[in-house]
């Protein structure tokens, strides 16, 4: 099997799994309990939080555990909206956000908030001057992802942060789900960022666990009310095994970060080179300014799912741009926002690599690709 769908989810790292099972079986206390089993659980919970905070160069109190990227995005959008509605009801998101942001914003629009969408250029990068022109007196939140999940465009977070330096009342949220472990932490965890969303299963951690960075002093109405866990911001008994495993996964991911990303970059550029020689191939990702792991392309005249299934027959797993859109048979939202023509957009498939892949897999992929491409040319005419 060759697994090139690492932006959809990654395999849990064996050491991470070991941490998970160790904690789940040996640390039985609830962190809220008064007895010493509770204190042991609390110590592990706080050690995990501290480790994540250190790796991100932020403070422990700024990390809140969640159930993943979707919850983190929902929490920021709804939490900021209802926290700040007395000051304004205007929210700006980019045109290429994940449904966790896009659909939450759409729901907020049904609750009396006004959502405006900052467009992207033909490569998928947010147009900063256009975003700037949307800013108003009553804007309370700007939400832009750091790395796009469908084509891998690295968004101009630094420029947006700079722009927002003059707008201290606007909260700035980044969805960093596809950024962590792919681009340097310093490139997106900027001083001006108020909230950042993370999800463990994208970096070899367990599914259903994530964390949110909330800058000190920034207020967020809770989504979950109850027993007051997570500093009264997110009630429910903590998923301690998942949290400890997430901290381990993050440490392992950021270990030898440069070597790993270089390896991934080289694999991507070998595939890129080969694909760019083919007449009927359209490339939606590039090497510069794009995540090193994501390469999205299409074979003109051939629907993406046909290509995905053709590879699947050889036990090679890729996807139609995002796990969310693939089953709906819909063209990728990002490509539509880039004004790619619908028939071309529906041809798109995404390869998403990982440092656990290797050049032998790349070569095997390319051998199969050449055969599939020749077959598809006959279909496409
Ligand atoms: C950019 C982005 N944001 C949010 C999510 C949702 O994360 P989760 O699956 O942890 O809910 C994803 C997952 O695909 C994503 O790619």
TrEMBL record:
It holds the Pfam family Aminotran_5. InterPro entries: Aminotrans_V_dom, Aminotrans_V_PyrdxlP_BS, Cysteine_dSase, PyrdxlP-dep_Trfase, PyrdxlP-dep_Trfase_major, PyrdxlP-dep_Trfase_small. It comes from the Bacteria. Its cofactor is pyridoxal 5'-phosphate. Residues 2-365 form the Aminotransferase class V domain. Coiled coil: none annotated. The keyword Glycoprotein does not apply. Signal peptide: none annotated. Keywords: Iron, Iron-sulfur, Metal-binding, Pyridoxal phosphate. The keyword Iron-sulfur applies. PANTHER family: CYSTEINE DESULFURASE ISCS 2-RELATED (PTHR11601:SF50), CYSTEINE DESULFURYLASE FAMILY MEMBER (PTHR11601). Belongs to the class-V pyridoxal-phosphate-dependent aminotransferase family. NifS/IscS subfamily. This is Cysteine desulfurase family protein. It comes from Lactococcus ileimucosae.
């Amino acid at each position: 099997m060759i697994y090139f769908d690492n932006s959809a989810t990654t395999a849990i790292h064996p050491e991470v799994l070991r941490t998970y099972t160790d904690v789940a079986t040996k640390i039985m206390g609830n962190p809220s309990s008064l007895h010493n089993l509770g204190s042991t659980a609390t110590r592990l919970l706080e050690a995990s939080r501290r480790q994540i905070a250190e790796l991100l160069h932020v403070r422990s109190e700024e990390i809140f555990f969640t159930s993943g990227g979707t919850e983190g995005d929902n929490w920021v959008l709804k939490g900021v909206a209802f926290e700040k509605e007395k000051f304004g009801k205007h929210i700006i998101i980019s045109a290429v956000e994940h449904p966790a942001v896009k659909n939450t914003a759409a729901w907020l629009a049904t609750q009396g908030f006004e959502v405006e969408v900052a467009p992207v250029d033909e490569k998928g990068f947010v147009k900063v001057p256009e975003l700037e022109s949307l800013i108003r007196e009553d804007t309370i939140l700007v939400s832009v992802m750091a790395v796009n999940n469908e084509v891998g465009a690295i968004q101009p977070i630094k420029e947006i942060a700079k722009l927002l330096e003059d707008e201290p009342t606007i909260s700035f949220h980044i969805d960093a789900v596809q950024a962590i472990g792919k681009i340097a932490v310093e490139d997106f965890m900027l001083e001006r960022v108020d909230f950042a969303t993370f999800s463990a299963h994208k970096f070899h951690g367990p599914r259903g666990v994530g964390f949110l960075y909330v800058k000190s002093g920034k207020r967020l109405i809770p989504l979950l009310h109850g027993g007051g866990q997570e500093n009264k911001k997110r009630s429910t008994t903590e998923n301690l095994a998942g949290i400890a495993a997430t901290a381990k996964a993050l440490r392992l991911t950021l270990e030898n970060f440069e070597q790993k990303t270089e390896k991934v970059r080289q694999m991507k550029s070998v595939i890129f080179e080969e694909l760019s020689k083919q007449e009927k191939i359209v490339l939606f990702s590039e090497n510069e300014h794009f995540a090193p792991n994501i390469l999205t392309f299409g074979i003109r005249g051939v629907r993406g799912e046909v290509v995905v299934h053709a590879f699947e027959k050889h036990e090679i797993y890729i996807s139609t741009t995002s796990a969310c859109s693939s089953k709906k048979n819909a063209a990728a939202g990002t490509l539509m926002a880039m004004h790619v023509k619908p028939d071309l957009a529906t041809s798109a498939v995404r390869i998403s690599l990982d440092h656990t892949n290797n050049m032998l897999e790349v070569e095997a992929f390319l051998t199969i690709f050449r055969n599939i491409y020749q077959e598809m040319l006959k279909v496409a005419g």
